[in-house]
């Protein structure tokens, strides 16, 4: 009761805003405390490293540490541009992501539509389980599987090629083959799981619309072409725009376990931003160059997300992120 | 996934319907088999004698059946058992702790009467937009937190992610706020409401999120590789597997205490056998929990 009277008098007095703020803070204190572990987590593991990007502007050497190393301004970026590294990394990262996003979504839609057409229940269940399986294994195992297929001496691919009378392929030193290998592996791993979203969307389609179309004489192809595909279009666009936000983020696990970070012969077609940064940290110990690439990635990635979100807000405001 | 509700040929089955069904069955069959075959390749090779591998290469069906690789792996099981114990402990502790924090945060941030929910949500979400990158993160863990060669360097960064908190928020959204309100009128505190009311009502959500966290820990190799050095005897399972795959020396060393001459160590089949031992149990377990992952991606992906 006493607090109620107090707050009433506070409402009249001039100190109202601060009092209210304090009171609101007090009312929310438990919920705030409940958020503290998560806030601490993100401060330590996400926000604390951010100022470390200052490394991009110095010539870091281990003995001097961050604050005594020479400040070099934009020299590191200049170097990255002049050597052509930055262009290669950007091109590879973005081109792979575009291929992943477009081919991935198309294949996911195809799988979802076909799954929906299946009648035999056990077959549907078993095939779904098998198609999800690659999503649940670690990137390390994916690397081993690729080695099983591609190894020059023992790989399955070369056994097949030889039995057909062709020369064996030196896959691990041939940069031309890798875009296909990497994209195929990505599709192999992600299609089944990714198709769930589209399959769920088809489930949300009103059955009456389908039945009405059938009464009007639509055949199965027309049903897919004129009802299901247009129905999936918004989901497709939203997923597309969401993934656009991550267009500069590479799938390190996939590239690293398939190719490694130090296979010089394959840089032209397999070196992405993440593998470059990893290499500059663990192999070359060039912390500044690695940070420069990371900073570039974060800043441009940020701009892309803002643009993508602006596009989402224009097409479907309820799905925009902020 | 609602199995009873499909949109195909519900009234009549004409030629086009049959055609689509056949094409679909063939396509899905081929794709499913393609998803399974690589696992059979690893399995087949793990049971092939090293001689047959050298002569005929890796194959689905062992030309010369041999359990030699498994015998060596299990003759000196200390390393792999140690790896299992490390991974299981990290997964259990990390999942329990991470799940609790994710659930608590997700609930608080979904409360409409929580004053700071938008600010905190953005504070968390912003970390997906901008990051310091690998180098500062590495320096933070190794130099400022001194967690090199410490299992905490694997455990802590995997606890939560913005994605999981958003997923929890989506799950909590389906619980009417009136439940919280009436409990408040009865005098219950926010934390008590969360523990006594919300947690029991969100068990399917907790199972889903818990499995996402657990799968992350089980398959974790990246932080292990960065922060756990070669001096560590017992490594998480995936790092152990990575070392076996990439380093012939490591395989020879781990086989050293068995009575096999170094040149007779079946390098190739041992890689495969280790992969089977490290991954097999999870693959057998996963069909039973698959539906939770399906739930997670439909909730999480549709409402960002």
UniProtKB/TrEMBL annotation, chain A:
Keyword ATP-binding belongs to the record: no
Domain ABC transmembrane type-1 span(s) in chain numbering = 90-308
- Spell out the subcellular localization from the entry: Cell membrane
The UniProt transmembrane annotation reads 31-50, 94-115, 136-157, 177-205, 226-248, 294-312
- Keyword Cell membrane listed? The answer is yes
- Extract the Pfam families matched here: BPD_transp_1
What kind of membrane protein is this, topologically?
Answer: Multi-pass membrane protein
InterPro entries of this UniProt entry?
A: MetI-like, MetI-like_sf, UgpAE/MalFG_permease
Listed GO cellular component terms?
Answer: plasma membrane
Quote the PANTHER family the UniProt record gives: BLL4140 PROTEIN (PTHR43227)
Family as reported in the entry's similarity comment: Belongs to the binding-protein-dependent transport system permease family.
- What protein does this entry describe? Putative aldouronate transport system permease protein
Q: Which organism is it from?
A: Paenibacillus phyllosphaerae
UniProtKB/TrEMBL annotation, chain B:
List the protein's name: Putative aldouronate transport system permease protein
What are the UniProt keywords, alphabetically?
Cell membrane, Membrane, Transmembrane, Transmembrane helix, Transport
Looking up CDD domains in the UniProt record yields:
TM_PBP2
What family is this protein classified in?
Belongs to the binding-protein-dependent transport system permease family.
Which membrane topology describes this protein? Answer: Multi-pass membrane protein
| Biological source species | Paenibacillus phyllosphaerae
Q: Where is the ABC transmembrane type-1 domain?
A: 84-289
Q: Pfam families this protein is in? A: BPD_transp_1
Q: Name one GO biological process term.
A: transmembrane transport
Annotated InterPro entries:
MetI-like, MetI-like_sf
Task: List residues traversing the bilayer.
Answer: 20-41, 84-110, 122-145, 151-172, 193-218, 272-289
Q: Where in the cell is it found?
A: Cell membrane
CC terms in the record's Gene Ontology section: plasma membrane
